[in-house]
Specification:
With 284 residues, the protein is an alpha+beta fold. It has helices at residues 13-25, 113-120, 124-132, 192-205, 213-223, 258-263, 271-282; strands at 32-38, 41-49, 56-60, 69-74, 78-84, 89-93, 143-147, 152-158, 164-170, 172-176, 179-180, 183-187, 229-236, 241-246, 249-257, 267-270. The protein has 7 helices and 16 strands.
Length: 284
């Protein structure tokens, strides 16, 4: 779960701090997001843990210079994460935020700004440029992880000083859960989900275990929260494929070719309906 559009101001600081404390203590605030870029293998994974049930998947066709995308989230639509046709992937975690300083010289970000970001950005450098254009102090930001098809990753978070922090890296693996990576006391730390995923990702990076579909699925399965994991996803930003699981069931997956889905014209579905439709179409 994450707060991609939480409206805050300086006068609301005590309220925001209470929300952060409640989220940190709640099992529903338990998302786990990772990226892996070692050798020729690039993957991006997310475990979406929340106490809402109307999970959705939708496909936004490209148009002109704008990228098409696969999006995941909740009613609204509330975009929580996704991958576009340039191979840019993202997701986010909650309970980590500091109040951001106001920058009145900049405009506020547009609407559901992550939708615009996926449409306009192809790389993590594009993401940095996009976010530097706007004043995020009114709505705040969650802690976010991005991976592009070049193997570059980016963690975006809020710093103790009230400024947005960009942590860029080439290759290796990255991991975020529900504590701020620049100040671990902001959020839930220590975190067993972080420790579990970190151990497996580190073993893959050093070659102690294969970076295989089974290995990445085991990470997602290992961090799931019974009763709260609404969906889990694994993106391949080079092949532009997505593997989706729902409600912690790792025996039933849907693998999506993003380009084929976009060529079919897009669509917006409850994730439960999408799983049923695709099962019927395949005859399973």
């Amino acid at each position: 779960m994450k707060l991609l559009g939480l409206q805050t101001s300086r006068s609301r600081v005590p309220v925001l701090l209470l929300v952060i404390a409640l989220l940190a203590a709640s099992p529903c605030a338990a998302c786990t997001v990772f990226s892996y870029a070692v050798g020729e293998i690039l993957r991006f994974g997310n475990s979406e843990d929340y106490d809402l049930f109307n999970t959705r998947i939708w496909f936004v066709p490209p148009g002109g210079s704008l990228h098409g995308a696969l999006c995941l989230g909740f009613d609204g639509p509330s975009l929580q994460g996704g991958m576009n046709d340039a191979g840019l992937c993202f997701d986010a975690t909650a309970g980590t935020s500091f109040i951001l300083n106001a920058h009145p010289e900049k405009p506020r970000p547009p609407g559901v700004w992550t939708t615009y970001l996926l449409a306009q950005c192809a790389t993590v450098d594009d993401v940095i440029a996009f976010m530097n254009r706007y004043d995020f102090s009114y709505g705040g930001i969650a802690q976010m992880l991005f991976l592009d098809r070049n193997g570059d990753s980016l963690i975006v978070t809020s710093g103790v000083d009230g400024e947005i922090v960009f942590l860029r890296k080439h290759g290796g693996y990255r991991l975020i859960t529900n504590f701020n990576v620049t100040a671990r006391w902001r959020g839930t730390y220590p975190c067993w989900r972080y420790d579990f995923a970190d151990g497996l990702l580190r073993s893959m990076e050093v070659g102690a275990m294969p970076a295989s579909p089974t290995g990445f699925r085991n990470i997602l399965a290992g961090v799931r929260i019974p009763g709260y994991t609404r969906y889990s996803n694994l993106f391949d930003p080079v092949a532009l494929t997505a593997t989706i699981y729902r409600e912690g069931d790792f025996a039933d997956a849907r693998t999506i070719d993003l380009q084929q889905a976009l060529d079919a014209g897009g669509g917006h579905y409850l994730l439960e309906d999408y799983f049923r439709m695709t099962a019927e179409a395949s005859g399973s």
